[in-house]
């Protein structure tokens, strides 16, 4: 549909009806859109390709938002009386597999451990602050305090039956920001191969499903 600038739109949030999280909503000329995916500034072509695929091939009504530091794709929703329920209903096919969230947490923890082991306490402290800022900026639920973030960085996600109720756009954002921070700390992208080994802790079937999802995701080629 449209490529928009930040000054063209208004972005608010509504409370998810069933989960402890806020849903970002973009408002443009009386229309409303929910966040589908986020890309960093260097991924302009990926963002446009994802947006065109949704609009041209899948018939979705979407907008691409251009900002100085990122691109984001938003899908049209109707907000009427039961606003949050309406978004929930229209987004129900976007429910995230818990194993995908576990896999992303394993990658997060592997980067954290690698930085601590190879670069030391000062660097890992900086990384913890940076990833906390990412969680705060993009309103990740159950990641809104230093203790909550420390829990995500240190507690085995495979040993818990409960994972944060994140959506796919959260996972895409986490993976792209994790890649950016890892490359920033290590100086190159060679860390990804070491970090991906952490996924071998998962059951083979779930690991295979996650890898299939990752290959099709906007951030997949960063990690392959």
Low-confidence stretches: 81-93
Helical content (DSSP H or I, runs of 4+): 40-55%
Rg (CA only): 17 Å
Mean pLDDT metric? 85
Query: What spatial order of strands do you see in the largest sheet?
Result: 1-5-6-4-3-2
Architecture blueprint of SSEs:
Elements: E1 2-5, E2 10-15, E3 22-28, E4 31-40, H1 44-57, E5 62-66, E6 70-77, H2 83-90, H3 98-119, H4 121-137, H5 146-154, H6 168-186, H7 191-196, H8 204-216, H9 220-223
Parallel strand pairs: 1-5
Antiparallel strand pairs: 2-3, 3-4, 4-6, 5-6
Helix pairs in contact: 3-4, 3-6, 4-5, 4-6
What does this protein structure show overall?
The protein has two domains: 2-93, Phosphorylase Kinase, domain 1, CATH 3.30.200; 98-223, no CATH class. It has nine helices and six strands. Helix 4 packs across helix 5 (146-154). Mean pLDDT is 85; it is low at 81-93. The protein is an alpha+beta fold and 224 residues long. The chain is 50% helix and 18% strand. It has a six-stranded mixed sheet with strand order 1-5-6-4-3-2.
Question: What would a concise description of this structure say?
Answer:
This protein is α+β, with helices and mostly antiparallel strands. Helix content is 50%, strand content 18%.
Task: Write out key terms for the chains shown.
single chain, 224 residues, alpha+beta, Phosphorylase Kinase, domain 1, six-stranded mixed β-sheet, 9 helices
